[in-house]
Design brief:
The protein contains 6 helices and 14 strands. By secondary structure, it is α+β, with helices and mostly antiparallel strands. The protein folds into 2 domains: 81 residues, Beta-grasp domain (Ubiquitin-like (UB roll), Roll), CATH 3.10.20; 130 residues, Alpha-Beta Complex (Aldehyde Oxidoreductase, domain 3), CATH 3.90.1170.
Length: 245
């Protein structure tokens, strides 16, 4: 059977642009596939220790059994991201390549029932780790990123009792001072709005597959992402062979 293999961010060089189709045995697990990739020198086992795996745009464990036609994505820690062609049930959840109109989002989310709107405006700063930043390049596993952003909206509304949540992330090249992500949370009460807004950005930066490449005056690097939750990176590969490098 055949599966489609994708990789992103700092691991994207492991596969071809657009992904690779690979033959795998019936009933093969994610762990077995990863061990083969290490044996073949496609990917460094050390890189897998902090990576998460998604099958058909859903996070999964290394014990997951693969099926014909599955899409398997290797995801380094995210650094959270064009409107997608797929259906978007909430127009306030989006990935865009044009500048984010924060004022318009603020206006649109407000309702007469609200007592507060909490806003988070993430912008590109001119330095990182003591180095001058020229610009940032953002990329995403777009279909999965949108799904995860919709889940964040639903969970924030249910858990914090807020009325509405908007999350818009930009992709592509961003100059210093431009907005990379804008989050707005509308609620009857300010405490819930503050709590939900903080939770959304903190969780997004750990679970939504968006990565950034930082261009400095003396070179470019993929930003070190925040670690995935432990349940997404458990058992990187089962007993990797010693000669897998």
């Amino acid at each position: 059977m055949r599966i489609r293999l994708l990789a992103f961010g700092s691991l994207k060089a492991a596969v071809s642009v657009g992904g690779d189709w690979r033959e795998v045995s019936a009933g093969e697990s994610v762990a077995s596939l990863l061990a083969k990739l290490c044996n073949e020198g496609v990917i460094d086992p050390a890189a897998l220790r902090s990576a998460a795996i998604a099958v058909n745009q859903e996070y999964t464990t290394r014990t997951h059994t693969l099926h014909d036609g599955d899409e398997v994505a290797i995801l380094p820690p995210v650094s959270g991201g064009a409107e997608s062609g797929q259906s978007n049930p909430s127009p306030r959840i989006a990935l865009v390549r044009d500048p984010i109109d924060a004022a318009a989002i603020d206006r649109e989310i407000k309702s007469g029932a609200d007592g507060a709107v909490c806003l988070f405006d993430g912008i590109v700063r001119d330095n990182s780790r003591g180095r001058r930043t020229l610009h940032l390049d953002y990329e995403a596993y777009e279909e999965m990123a949108l799904k995860q952003m919709h889940l964040l909206r639903v969970e924030a509304i249910e858990h914090f009792g807020v009325r509405e949540v908007a999350i818009v992330h930009r992709l592509g090249r961003l100059a210093v001072g431009e907005t990379s992500i804008f989050i707005a949370v509308a609620s009857a009460h300010r405490a819930a709005a503050f709590d939900a807004c903080r939770w959304v950005i903190d969780t997004l930066k750990k679970t939504v597959p968006i990565w950034k490449r930082e261009q400095f005056i003396d070179g470019a690097v993929w930003a070190d992402g925040e670690p995935f939750p432990d349940d997404l990176t458990q058992n990187p590969i089962a007993n990797p062979p010693e000669n897998s490098r």
